[in-house]
Design a protein that fits this description.
743 residues, 4 domains, alpha/beta, Alpha-Beta Plaits, seven-stranded mixed beta sheet, 20% strand, 27 helices
């Protein structure tokens, strides 16, 4: 019971608890699998597209070819800013860093050419040489502009006072807020930073990761100051509001719940991230910078007016291409644009803290079910049941993604991860099946241990396939049962000390047992000097009477060989008995065979009339005067062997006499002229006994025809002189079997 139920359950429970701990620890592989699952959801159902006032002025390959290599002179960027403002842009947002002065500005070049052109510095100081940085700053000051700063892990200085006023609600200490920190920043030139109206982080993820961008930090922290990301700052400038409000969880120890910008409320993760919900790139999202700087810029006013315009680059050589949940790469500027579009559309993805607990509970319930199911159902059934639960879990997760209102979230989808419950449940299933296999393998070893000494390897392999047959109980089937013991064993044992007698018996049983199992027989037990065996159980053995008789002949032959080499050391030790002889009786018929005994200790054995008859027939060998005797049913099942009829004898406990035959030899002997002549003479002897005739002469003729080696046949015929009554016609068993003569 412990092995079958309790111990596997404890093993499975330990696996479930271990996996629960892994889920709580949430290592990187678990996070990655969860992120990939949500990525697939977005690929199957991206955010629905809408005509939203967001555009990207793209510094693309065509722009570089037209205007020149990057970086462009700041006077060109000043012109770009001015034109966008004139076209009615609600915000002009640069997803570009400007940490250094313009190297091609004439005022800057004056220092380089002073040696070759004396007075250049004086011209610059007098303002007679244009300063492109100042020109760009002037353009920024005259437009709803936003510049970006980059978060760097080393070097740089933290940004100063933010342009936006960020109010934190439900949390007094900004240093406790769990938003990404700014170790250092690559800031715009002071002249540019002072001129712009907005300043936000262009960094897409803390630490500068290069993987797919799935979440965008809306807030960053440096000391006691909070700073917006570029997308939020762009939205603030476009809405012409001065402040951003961050709502902290009052009991969340600095976690963020949502961010307010103007009339927009943005739900966030605990660390202030927006879970990005991508849409396929709209056809009219991008406008080439070449077109805005060209003579026909007015033709694009309908795309620019009232729009938040982000300026960035998609040119391959400028290395601003990032992975996304859609499985396609995007320029970093488009990720900011998609974040703004998502906020404007009011479509979000939410993953509240309780969702992780729900996933853990789902896994726990599914894991416990698998543990229970594997105790009572087969692996395939459990796999199907687990698959149904897994499909239900996946379907529920998908529905939550498509419509979060089921969980009270009206503005989009709820992210529920089915990957860990499914994978964890499969691990539990695999572990339980492996454990079950281990137990089954142990059962097979037990079977092999229990039967390995008693049956042939071929039979043992079949038994292992049907180990369920080893339960208590049995079945009725036709068997061939053999009993064999040592002739005159009492006399033999008188001359032996116990340990030597045991050695003798072990030598004998080892040799005889191999002959039995070699013919696919099952050794039931050793009883003193006797061996009991049977055929056709626990698995079916075709022509089992022939197998049993062949084993008997092999046992006789083996014993002759052992005696010839004095294997029992009878001659060497001068024992009164120089050789060992055995008697064998075989009966064929129905018997009850199976495991008998206690639940914890049982033997595989057989009982019934057939078993009793085999024992009595073996005992009749002494009366018949021959070493191998069989009943009529056994002879009929091995008719090709050399048999001689031995009459019918009364068996103890039987109301009818039993027809008996002696087994003289194998099929080869049965086909020899010598045995056929003996067989014919033996038939004449039987006729003489039953019908009257020259009885003594018939016996003499039979003895004279014993031309093949058989030391017992002469003794067999000698006993017929004393027991010829066993051959008379009043033997009902013989008559019913179809042998003998009628009156």
């Amino acid at each position: 019971m412990w092995k079958r139920r309790v111990f596997p359950s404890l093993f499975g429970l330990a696996i479930v608890l271990l996996l629960c701990w892994v889920r709580i620890a949430d290592p990187y592989p678990v996070q990655s699998l969860r992120d990939l699952t949500f990525d697939w959801y977005q690929r199957l159902a991206p955010r629905e597209g809408a005509d939203l006032p967001v555009r990207i002025v793209d510094i693309d390959e065509a722009s570089l070819a037209e205007i020149g290599q990057w970086p462009w002179p700041r006077n060109t960027l000043a012109e770009l800013t001015t034109r966008l403002t004139q076209l009615g842009a609600a915000a002009v947002v640069f997803d570009i860093l400007f940490p250094e002065p313009d190297r091609v500005s004439p005022a800057r070049l004056a220092e380089a050419i002073e040696a070759d052109l004396p007075g250049a510095l004086d011209l610059a100081a007098a303002g007679r040489l244009p300063d492109y940085d100042n020109m760009f700053a002037e353009a920024l000051a005259n437009s709803p502009s936003v510049l970006g700063f980059g978060v760097v892990s080393r070097g740089g200085t933290p940004p100063g006072v933010p342009k936006a006023g960020i109010n934190l609600v439900n949390e007094l200490n900004k240093e406790r807020v769990l938003v990404p920190t700014i170790p250092g920043a690559a800031m715009p030139l002071p002249v540019l930073a002072a001129a712009t109206y907005g300043l936000g982080s262009v960094s897409l993820e803390p630490g500068g990761t290069v993987g797919a961008i799935r979440r965008l930090p809306l807030l960053w922290r440096s000391g006691t100051e909070l700073y917006p990301t570029l997308a939020i700052e762009a939205l603030r400038i476009a809405l012409q509001t001065d402040s951003i409000v961050a709502i902290a969880d009052p009991i969340g120890f600095g976690t963020i719940q949502r961010v307010h910008v103007g009339g927009f409320t943005v739900p966030t993760t605990a660390t202030g991230d927006l879970w990005l919900y991508y849409q396929q790139t709209p056809d009219d999202l991008y406008v080439s910078a070449r077109d805005i700087l060209g003579p026909d810029a007015g033709a694009f006013q309908n795309l620019i007016a009232g729009n938040i315009v982000l300026i960035g680059t998609s040119a391959t050589g400028l290395l601003d291409i990032r992975g996304t949940s859609l499985g396609v790469n995007m320029p970093g500027v488009e990720i900011h644009a998609q974040a703004i579009q998502q906020i404007l559309s009011g479509t979000y993805l939410a993953r509240a803290d309780w969702v992780g607990g729900l996933e853990l509970l789902a896994f726990l319930l599914m894991g416990l079910f698998i543990i229970f199911a594997t105790q009572f159902f087969g692996p395939l059934t459990v796999l199907v049941l687990g698959g149904v639960m897994g499909l239900a879990m996946a379907a529920g997760s998908w529905l939550a993604f498509r419509d979060g209102s089921v969980f009270g979230f009206e503005n989009g989808g709820v992210l529920i991860d089915p990957s860990f419950p499914l994978l964890g449940t499969f691990i539990v299933y695999s572990a339980m099946i492996f454990f079950r296999f281990t137990i089954t393998d142990a059962d097979k070893r037990k079977i092999r241990s229990a039967f390995g000494f008693y049956v042939a390897p071929a039979l043992l392999a079949q038994i292992e396939k049907n180990s369920g047959q080893l339960a208590l109980g049995g079945e009725t089937r036709e068997l061939s049962v053999m009993f064999s013991d040592i002739r005159d064993f009492t006399t033999l044992s008188e001359g032996f000390v116990p340990h030597k007698l045991v050695t003798l018996l072990n030598t004998l049983f080892d040799a005889l047992g191999n002959r039995i199992t070699g013919e696919l027989g099952t050794i039931d037990k050793f009883i003193g000097d006797a061996v009991m065996a049977f055929w056709n159980a626990p698995v079916e053995v075709p022509r089992h009477p022939l197998r049993a008789c062949t084993a008997a002949l092999q046992m006789r032959k083996t014993l002759v060989e052992l005696n010839a080499v004095d294997a029992f050391r009878l001659k060497a030790e001068g024992h009164a008995m120089q050789e060992i002889y055995i008697r064998i009786g075989i009966s064929t018929g129905e018997a009850l065979v199976g495991n008998m005994g206690l639940e914890t200790r049982f033997d595989y054995s057989c009982i019934g009339d057939t078993v009793n008859v085999a024992s009595r027939v073996e005992g009749a060998c002494k009366t018949i005067g021959y070493d191998i005797t069989v009943v009529e049913a056994t002879r009929a099942g091995a008719a090709e062997l050399a048999f001689l009829e031995a009459g019918s004898i009364a068996l103890k406990g039987k109301s009818r006499r039993e027809a008996i035959h002696i087994l003289v030899g194998d099929a080869e002997l049965a086909a020899t002229p010598g045995f056929q002549a003996l067989q014919a003479a033996h038939a004449e002897l039987l006729a003489a006994i039953r019908c009257g005739g020259d009885f003594d002469g018939a016996i003499d003729r039979c003895v004279a025809l014993i031309t093949f080696p058989d030391s017992l046949l002469a003794n067999f015929y000698a006993t017929i002189r004393k027991r010829h009554g066993d051959y008379l016609l009043d033997a009902p068993a013989a008559a019913e079997a179809g042998h003998g003569f009628t009156d």
